């Protein structure tokens, strides 16, 4: 094998550079802030899990499990999957750590990378980021609305405008089988008008036909029976309560009868938040209730509701709507040093500067003062601390105002306070 000359990021994956990370960081900060406000606790699960967890918890008939999982075989012969979503891992952690005995509902959240073997030509990433919130142990419609409201508020706090909630109920195991039967009967009668994917879905997962984006399938779907007409009393009442709460919170929503999650453990509420009034919008966040999932993973009935949001899509919209400008990193002060003793002193005064919340820049590998002042100028540092051998001996440094060239001697232990004072004066 010839040696690789050039290395690149793997297909469908990308480096996040400092400017990208300012956007991610902004999202993470808002998510952490709202998690605290709404009383959610953060957990981190491993990036890999037993393949079977996703086969059960995501569903064997989903594209994710059928086509998009990264599976590794370990030396010990175990099969592990890079996580394609968070929810099954949360459910596993819930049982594994006895959260069953915690006060309920148990409210958890996280954010981080997920992995799906997507087609990169469609512009999809194979490593992407999501944040995820789950409430375990509540059957109540208000918990669905708590999740919707939380995601809504996070997106609004990020500055995003013109959003709408699409909402639907997909019933439960009481009423959905009747609907499914009548849907399948209808779709069979129109089978030749469906795309090849939907012909397959008709056998494996007929509900998924409802969210096919193909034009010819859309025409068929427009005349299909709707779940809303088949809801049992309990599911109907649940949906009505959810909509009442959304009205009371003044969240704009659209009752979308074609919104589905194609898996049997999803129950009642499903929702997505997306840009309003744009052609072919993609959802920023999506989720709903899945009362029958936890039993598949932990053999115990625990009702649950939750959602996830795609951070890359959110960032793309933040850029499109121009609602966040990454701030060029602001330097308070540059520390220029001359000689070895001064280099060591530079490192030693960092802690004092930190106490005064002054964040400096410095270039220890440079020896000439001229070079260092040039860097300070490029970084836009308003002040420079200058340390030479003599200053180190005297226990003082020179502080120079880069604009006026005026400089004064300041004792080392006063540096932080002095810079702070000068920065204040400058404003
Ligand atoms: Zn289709
Ligand atoms: Zn029902």
- At CATH level 3, the topology of the largest domain is BirA Bifunctional Protein, domain 2
The largest sheet is: 8 strands, mixed
Instruction: Give the mean pLDDT.
Output: 92
Bound molecules: zinc ion
What's the CATH architecture of the largest domain?
A: 2-Layer Sandwich
Q: Mind telling me the CATH superfamily name of the largest domain?
A: Bira Bifunctional Protein, Domain 2
Kindly report how far apart the N and C termini lie: 62 Å
CA radius of gyration = 28 Å
Q: Describe the strand arrangement of the main beta sheet, using strand numbers.
A: 1-5-6-11-10-9-7-8
Secondary-structure class: alpha+beta
What is the count of helical runs?
A: 15
Poorly predicted ranges: none
Provide the domain count: 2
β-strand percent reads 15-25%
What top-tier CATH class of the largest domain fits best?
A: Alpha Beta
Helix content: 25-40%
**Tally of extended strands?**
16
Shape: elongated
Protein model, in words:
- The chain is built from 15 helices and 16 strands.
- The chain is of the alpha+beta class and 427 residues long.
- It folds into two domains: 18-175 and 231-320, BirA Bifunctional Protein, domain 2, CATH 3.30.930.10; 333-426, Anticodon-binding domain (Rossmann fold).
- Strands 1-5-6-11-10-9-7-8 form an eight-stranded mixed sheet. Strands 13-12-14-15-16 form a five-stranded mixed sheet, with helices on both faces.
- The radius of gyration is 28 Å and the shape is elongated.
- The N and C termini lie far apart (62 Å).
- Bound molecules: zinc ion (2 copies).
- One zinc ion binds at residues 194-195, 197-198, 212, 214, 217.
């Amino acid at each position: 094998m010839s040696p690789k000359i050039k290395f690149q990021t793997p297909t469908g994956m990308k480096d996040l550079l400092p400017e990208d990370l300012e956007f991610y960081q902004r999202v993470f900060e808002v998510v952490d802030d709202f998690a605290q406000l709404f009383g959610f606790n953060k957990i981190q699960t491993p990036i890999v899990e037993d393949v079977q967890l996703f086969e059960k918890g995501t569903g064997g008939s989903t594209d994710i499990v059928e086509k998009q999982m990264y599976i590794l075989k370990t030396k010990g012969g175990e099969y592990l999957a890079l996580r394609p979503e968070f929810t099954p891992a949360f459910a596993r952690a819930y049982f594994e750590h006895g959260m069953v005995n915690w006060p309920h509902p148990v409210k958890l959240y996280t954010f981080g990378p997920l992995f799906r073997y997507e087609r990169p030509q469609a512009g999809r990433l194979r490593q992407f980021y999501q944040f995820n919130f789950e409430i375990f142990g509540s059957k109540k419609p208000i918990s669905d609305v708590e999740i919707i409201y939380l995601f809504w508020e996070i997106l609004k706090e990020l500055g995003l405008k013109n959003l709408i909630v699409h909402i639907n109920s997909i019933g439960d195991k009481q009423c959905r089988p009747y609907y499914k039967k009548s849907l399948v009967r209808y779709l069979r009668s129109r089978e030749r008008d469906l795309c090849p994917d939907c012909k397959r879905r008709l056998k494996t997962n007929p509900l998924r036909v409802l969210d096919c984006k193909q034009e010819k399938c859309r025409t068929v779907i427009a005349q299909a029976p709707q779940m809303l007409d088949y809801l049992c009393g309990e599911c109907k009442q649940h949906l009505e309560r959810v909509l009442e709460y959304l009205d009371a919170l003044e969240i704009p929503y659209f009752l979308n009868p074609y919104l589905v999650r194609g898996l049997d453990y999803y129950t009642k509420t499903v929702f997505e938040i997306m840009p309003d009034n744009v052609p072919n919008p993609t959802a920023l966040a999506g989720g709903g209730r899945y009362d029958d999932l936890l039993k598949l993973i932990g053999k115990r009935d625990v009702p649950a509701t939750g959602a996830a949001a795609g951070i890359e899509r959110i960032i793309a919209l933040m850029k499109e709507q121009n609602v966040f400008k990454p701030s060029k990193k602001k330097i308070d002060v540059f520390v220029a040093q001359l000689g070895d003793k001064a280099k060591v002193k530079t490192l030693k005064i960092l802690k004092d500067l930190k106490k005064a919340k002054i964040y400096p820049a410095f270039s220890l590998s440079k020896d000439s003062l001229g070079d260092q002042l040039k860097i300070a100028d490029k970084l836009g540092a308003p002040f420079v601390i200058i340390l030479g051998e003599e200053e180190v001996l005297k226990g003082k440094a020179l502080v120079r105002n880069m604009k006026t060239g005026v400089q004064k001697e300041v004792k080392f232990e006063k540096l932080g306070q002095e810079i702070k004072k000068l920065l204040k004066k400058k404003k």
